[in-house]
């Protein structure tokens, strides 16, 4: 090969590298390329060789004069008909034929492995049948100088060759030029200019521009730097930023949109299939199978009224001035004392108003058996008590709930779902409470989120009608329907309603009277919520049966003065007090400086949350401090209860036949496997629990396994406590499915035989039966499940 041609090609390669590196503009690149190719392109068209020097060494004036011509170049979308001749076609075909006969040696090192096509697979276009579409594929930035215009018919073919190779090495080019056809038979004629053009095409086809490590087709090794992709021959560099984005887009499109379906479940499925092997060293229960514990029978022969309402009527007419309930304000002063006479008369007024004065479309708004919501704050026990007994006298079902604070309160929404499922359409409240509720623009009580539409009735004295003298409710009849519905919030946050029948209500009052030894005219100090649980059972129901005087301590007063309940016990000489372990703990923190208090009048200090393991520490600390102030150890009486089974067990003082209190130090490791193992207090991994007393009178209790069929547990095994009694809840209102599972459980022995002829109620409490050596056989220890 002539040295001049080799030198020119090397300069062209250097020029390509300069373009890649970005040190020359596009216009400058086009000028330089025109100069390098001008000496060979005229040979193809038969132009006078004397013009080569002119094109090779242009003067300053020529450059200046050529500028306007370049600005007036023809559009790139049209082809110059002057170069569409048979001579040109024959020259190109001859050049290809000669190239086939004398193939150029392939590069021997650093060749790109991504290039799979060569110049042999491409054929120059037939200029006689060229269309305007071919020219339209060129970029607008094409060179417009006269020498390159003479080469316009060859240039698209070179574009196809280079684009075909660049598709393998650059993701920016997605397809080759659409005008290629299979190689045609070469013509016999050939010219030196055609051979030169062929050599140039071979150079550009085998010089892999844009690849970091490529070789020149003439044997000159060229190492390209890492750089942006370049469209060969046309000389238009692609912005590296755009190129990287396109590359990223292509990589994204190549990826599958989502893995195969089986890959979604491989790992999780293997984890699910992996069965956790039990620890061979874990403790296992070794005791014998437990049996059903039977509580003492209810005392017979004692004259009792047929119903709780009959008892209220008796005390309201025979002992009208006996104090029934005393309410305190936030300063500890008694604001009002409700007598049994006032309770009976106000309840009658409310019952008459509910049945006769509330109408809807000329029909009574309520009928016997309808549910009514009771919305009263914790600071107003008097009006709540009147509303509760007024509903019972009107044969309506009260549903006590908390006062909604905001329109979108999360807890209130669950209560609203309960009210909707119960079909509640009326809510009872006081004038003060109604004024504090959120209001709509009309001035009425706003509709709370999740609540059904409600009518609100204020039950203060002036809003109630006096009943005629000949109107009397059916207080003496023993009713069989639902007495009230107590709401319960589960661990998941849902709210359900536990229905309590009139028979269960009466049986609960009698059982508590016998277990606690309540008598007439006793004073009870109540710190608990009087609308539900033990605060309702002791402070509103059982107290009326025994004509007791209840002093209700509001929660706001306890926050301001934690010693207030102790002071009221001392002031009223209360015989019983109903508290939680938190109240005892707060009293310890505030008792310093209080020397004039005495708890010697107490015979029972009922700890309502005695089933919780942490209550024992509060009980022990409280006894250590107040034992010097008249508190006896046997007075502290923890109890266990649940909304479903009501009172499950309660410890009794010795004067009522109860054994002394006992404790148990249990291994935490054993408890984690549901096994009872006695340990010593010196270790840290132990749990000290206290007994919660004896089974309630008239009840039967057993402990069953937590999962699956309710088999009886062994004596050293923890299980769920179940109760069979006439003093338990009857169902979850409107939820038949879970009602059967909870209120109709059938415990069985290891052989599968039922342990009793009547179903049991699951309490949701974990517990076990204490051994005879530790306590009596009727003792249970429990905690909230």
TrEMBL record:
PROSITE patterns listed in its UniProt record = DMAP1_BIND
Question: Polar residues bias located where?
Answer: 118-130, 143-153
Q: Where is this region: Disordered?
A: 52-191, 275-299
Q: Where is the DMAP1-binding domain?
A: 1-118
Please note every region of biased composition (Low complexity): 165-191
Q: Listed GO cellular component terms?
A: cell surface
In terms of InterPro entries, this protein maps to: AMP-dep_synth/lig_dom, ANL_N_sf, DMAP1-bd
Name of the protein in its database record: Disco interacting A
Write down the species. Answer: Rhinopithecus bieti (Black snub-nosed monkey)
């Amino acid at each position: 090969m002539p040295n001049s041609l080799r030198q020119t090609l090397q300069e062209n390669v250097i020029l390509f590298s300069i373009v890649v590196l970005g040190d020359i503009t596009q216009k400058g690149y086009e000028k330089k390329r025109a100069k390098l190719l001008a000496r060979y392109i005229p040979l193809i068209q038969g132009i006078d060789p004397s013009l080569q020097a002119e094109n090779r060494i242009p003067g300053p004036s020529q450059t200046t004069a050529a500028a306007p011509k370049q600005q007036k170049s023809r559009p790139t979308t049209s082809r110059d008909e002057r170069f569409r001749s048979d001579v040109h076609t024959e020259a190109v075909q001859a050049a290809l034929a000669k190239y086939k006969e004398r193939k150029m040696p392939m590069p021997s090192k650093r060749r790109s492995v991504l290039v799979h096509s060569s110049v042999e697979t491409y054929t120059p276009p037939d200029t006689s049948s060229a269309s305007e579409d071919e020219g339209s594929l060129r970029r607008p930035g094409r060179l417009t100088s006269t020498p390159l215009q003479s080469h316009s018919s060859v240039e698209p073919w070179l574009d196809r060759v280079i684009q075909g190779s660049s598709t393998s090495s650059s993701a920016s080019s997605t397809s080759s030029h659409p005008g290629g056809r299979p190689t045609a038979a070469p013509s016999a004629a050939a010219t030196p200019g055609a051979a030169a053009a062929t050599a140039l095409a071979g150079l550009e086809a085998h010089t892999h521009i844009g690849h970091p490590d490529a070789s020149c087709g003439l044997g000159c090794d060229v190492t390209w730097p890492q750089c942006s992709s370049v469209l060969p021959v046309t000389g238009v560099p692609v912005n590296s930023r755009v190129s990287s984005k396109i590359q990223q887009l292509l990589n994204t499109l190549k990826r599958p949109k989502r893995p195969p379906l089986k890959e979604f479940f491989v790992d999780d499925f293997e984890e699910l299939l992996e069965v956790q092997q039990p620890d061979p060293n874990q403790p296992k229960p070794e005791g014998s199978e437990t049996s059903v514990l039977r509580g003492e029978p209810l005392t017979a022969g004692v004259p009792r009224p047929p119903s709780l309402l009959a008892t209220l009527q008796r005390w309201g007419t025979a002992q009208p001035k006996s104090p029934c309930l005393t309410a305190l304000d936030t300063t500890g002063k008694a604001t009002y004392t409700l007598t049994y006479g006032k309770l009976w008369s106000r309840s009658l007024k409310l019952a008459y108003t509910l049945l006769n004065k509330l109408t809807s479309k000329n029909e009574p708004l309520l009928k016997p058996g309808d549910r009514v919501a009771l919305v009263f704050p914790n600071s107003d026990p008097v009006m709540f008590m009147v509303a509760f007994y007024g509903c019972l006298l009107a044969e309506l079902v009260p549903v006590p709930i908390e006062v909604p604070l905001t329109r979108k309160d999360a807890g209130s929404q669950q209560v609203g779902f309960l009210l909707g499922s119960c079909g509640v359409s009326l809510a009872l409240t006081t004038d003060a409470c109604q004024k504090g509720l959120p209001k709509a623009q009309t001035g009425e009580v706003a509709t709370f989120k999740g609540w059904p539409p409600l009518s609100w009735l204020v039950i203060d004295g002036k809003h109630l009608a006096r009943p005629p003298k000949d109107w009397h409710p059916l207080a003496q009849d023993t009713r069989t329907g639902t007495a009230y519905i107590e709401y319960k919030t589960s661990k998941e946050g849902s709210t359900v309603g536990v229905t309590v029948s009139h028979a269960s209500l009466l049986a609960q009052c009698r059982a508590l009277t016998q277990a606690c030894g309540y008598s007439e005219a006793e004073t009870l100090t109540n710190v608990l919520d009087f609308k539900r649980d033990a605060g309702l059972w002791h402070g509103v129901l059982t107290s009326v049966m025994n004509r007791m005087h209840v002093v209700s301590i509001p929660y706001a007063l306890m926050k301001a003065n934690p010693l207030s309940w102790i002071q009221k016990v001392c002031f009223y000489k209360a015989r019983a007090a109903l508290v939680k372990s938190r109240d005892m703990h707060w009293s310890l923190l505030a008792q310093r400086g209080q020397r004039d208090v005495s708890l010697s009048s107490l015979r029972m200090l009922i700890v309502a949350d005695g089933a919780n393991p942490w209550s024992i520490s509060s009980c022990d600390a409280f006894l250590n401090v107040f034992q010097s102030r008249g508190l006896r150890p046997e007075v502290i009486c923890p109890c266990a209860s649940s909304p479903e089974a009501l009172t499950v067990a309660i410890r009794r003082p010795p004067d009522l036949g109860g054994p002394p209190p006992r404790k148990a130090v249990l291994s935490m490791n054993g408890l984690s496997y549901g096994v009872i193992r006695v340990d010593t207090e010196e270790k840290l991994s132990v749990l000290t629990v206290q007994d919660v007393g004896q089974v309630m009178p008239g009840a039967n209790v057993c402990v069953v396994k937590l999962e699956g069929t309710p088999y009886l547990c062994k004596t050293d095994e923890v299980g769920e406590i179940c109760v069979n009694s006439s003093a338990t809840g009857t169902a979850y209102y409107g939820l038949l499915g879970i009602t059967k599972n909870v209120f109709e459980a059938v415990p069985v022995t290891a052989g599968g035989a039922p342990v009793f002829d009547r179903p049991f109620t699951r309490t949701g409490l974990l517990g076990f039966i204490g051994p005879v050596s530790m306590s009596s056989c009727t003792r249970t220890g429990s905690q909230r499940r």
